[in-house]
Amino acid sequence: MDNALFSRRRAERFAQLLDEANGGRRHHVRSRIDDQLTPLVGLGRQLGANPPAPEVDPEFRTGLRAMLLATAEREGIAAPAPTEKVSNNRAALLPAVTARRARARGAILVGIAAGAIAVSGISAASENAVPGDALYGMKRGTERAQLALASSEISRGQLFLDFARTRLVEASALHGNRSGYGTVLDDMDADTRQGVRLLTGAAAQRSDAAALEAVDAFLIRQRRALNALMDSGSRTDRERTAQSLLLLESVTERADALRATIACGQPVGSASDSLGPLPGTCA
User: Fold this and answer.
1) End-to-end alpha-carbon separation of the chain, Å?
2) How do residues 108-125 score in pLDDT, each as one tens digit?
3) Per-residue CA distances from 280 to 55, 207, 259 (Å)
4) Which of helix, strand or coil describes residue 207?
5) In angstroms, what CA-CA distances link 197 with 46, 105, 202, 242, 250?
6) 97, 105, 140, 205: which is deepest, by most CB within 10 A?
7) How far apart are CA 9 and CA 25, in angstroms?
8) Per-residue pLDDT at 105 exceeds 60
9) Phi-psi sector, 199: left (phi>0), alpha (psi -120 to 50), beta
């Protein structure tokens, strides 16, 4: 492959074309390298629609998890131990020096961990983590990094809906744990609202209902999985599950009403709520 492809100018233009192909803001420019990048854009869309499902060796995941936990324990990444009061100035400086060293050690570990995520599959080691697991923070940190790297509001909205599906998988694993189950569903509903708000906002801004297709696909899968949880668990769990199902009904109504507003050519007003813009009324 031509090394010039990785020049900054080509990389930036490729990102613009890929963003446009995924429904992002159009840049209204034309470059002479567009014809060379078009096949790669098509490949990128195919990979996005049908991402490969990597298979990680269970022994590798177990060994990597053990290594990370051992490193965290060895480097003292935990709550600081109380320090005794000292009487002289030199001794008083010791806790500050120790704290600086601990922060520097922590920064080094963070840098190592960030590089390892990209090259050695730490994210695979934490993908099955649930609240309470040692690597759950790493899992949520990876999600925040994905949001920071998203190139458009539509991409961010789709990520939030992906995270809501992940929270539902975690809730399934915690079914029967009253406090943990409800907390994860709270996070799931928050991710659902964030994703829907971004996608309905994009649809209203562009007067194009295409962004709502991601919402429709999310609703079908999420409703099916939640209904499956209604068949088991305690009464408290079923009541909490029902609340999330009611949220999905509200999302369905909002998406349908917004789609109708766009179809009849009515402008969407500036008023909004937790699910995004409030649709207008067709004449």
Assistant:
1) 56
2) 555 545 544 443 455 666
3) 47, 12, 10
4) coil
5) 26, 40, 9, 21, 12
6) 140
7) 19
8) no
9) alpha
